[in-house]
Amino acid sequence: MPAFRSSTYTIGFWLMCLSSFLFFMSFNMLLPELPDHLTRLGGADYKGFIIALFTLTAGLSRPFSGKLADTVGRIPVMVFGSLVCFICGFFYPWATTVTGFLLLRLLHGFSTGFKPTGTAAFIADIIPVERRGEAMGLLGVAGSLGMAAGPAIGGLLAQHFSLNTMFYSSSGMALLSLVVQGTMTETLPQAQREKFSWRLLKLEWSEVLEPRVLAPALVTLLCLFPYGAVLTVIPDQSRLLGIENKGLFFTCYTVASLIVRLVAGRASDTYGRVPVLRWSSALLMVALGLLSFATTPLLFLVAAVLFGLATGLNSPTLYAWTIDLSHPERRGRAVATMYIALEAGIGLGALLAGWIYGNLAEHLPYVHALSASCVLLALAYLLAVVREKPIVA
């Protein structure tokens, strides 16, 4: 395990980790129960939209959050994202129709369109280049803890209390994240800051995508496609295998991701971003292969662990690689570009998984095979095309 230097990790860094933990716990609490909830509302055929609509709004809002992070500030962007999460969690009990539920999912996506963009830019501002991979790994540990605890706690609240209790608790976690952000100091240089005005929401094409980070963005899209597919079909696959707690897969996955981030957080700082991504992509393909043929709970949960290990390696590496290639004055936009790719991958994965699955158990292997094919494309690109580039300080 790496030796963490206190001079590198300030109170602002640890507060950001706490805020991320609460934020990710907030909306991940809902995931295991939403497919069945939508089915009870009469929307069984729209399960793929649970994730797809969420990621659609998140992706569309990224260029705006990136520009605002580079002009208005990192913290206002994060505050807006957490505020949306708080409001949407509170209103889920009132969305009693399929249309109302799907509209709320669409609005909820603004939360992840803003909060993580500001977070990544904030961390990049305060962490030296030689510790970026490690710092992103530690931030990922906080997010993974929230992602691990969220589904488990959400499932327990729904099982022993009510769905409404789960929804209101989700809203409360977002509010706590918002409170923590209020204690932090803005890191965007004063010379770059502007007061918010509506004209800042007018985008030029050059402000939508940052060309310097297209390579990590493409790998992000291909490697996050499986995550969208998994979010869509795993609750049903869990039920078909007789696993009562539909959040168990996500708990195993996120705990494994957490462990590898702690142990291998500095791997990409030491060995390079691209070599680590090659190995993590290969491991992700193995996990998806196991999911395709998982006929027992044990094999299913082993696949969850391998999926988590692969994600724990590639996620902080992709963040660090993106920041390496970005210009300091366009850091928010570079991060937003990577997140646009992330949301596109997750959204496409969710939509196609829902369409291919069609509530038929025999179609599940095809879903995971398609995901593995996307990762294979990413691996081929990393092996044949990509070379390490100099880091931008």
UniProtKB/TrEMBL annotation:
Residues 12-390 form the Major facilitator superfamily (MFS) profile domain. It is found in: Membrane. Keywords: Membrane, Transmembrane, Transmembrane helix. It comes from the Bacteria. The keyword Membrane applies. PANTHER family: QUINOLENE RESISTANCE PROTEIN NORA (PTHR23531). The keyword Membrane applies. CDD domains: MFS_YfcJ_like. It is a multi-pass membrane protein. The chain crosses the membrane at residues 12-31, 46-65, 77-95, 101-124, 136-161, 209-227, 247-264, 276-294, 300-322, 334-357, 363-386. SUPFAM superfamilies: MFS general substrate transporter. GO terms for molecular function: transmembrane transporter activity. GO terms for cellular component: membrane. This is MFS transporter. InterPro entries: MFS, MFS_dom, MFS_Exporter, MFS_trans_sf, Tet-R_TetA/multi-R_MdtG-like.
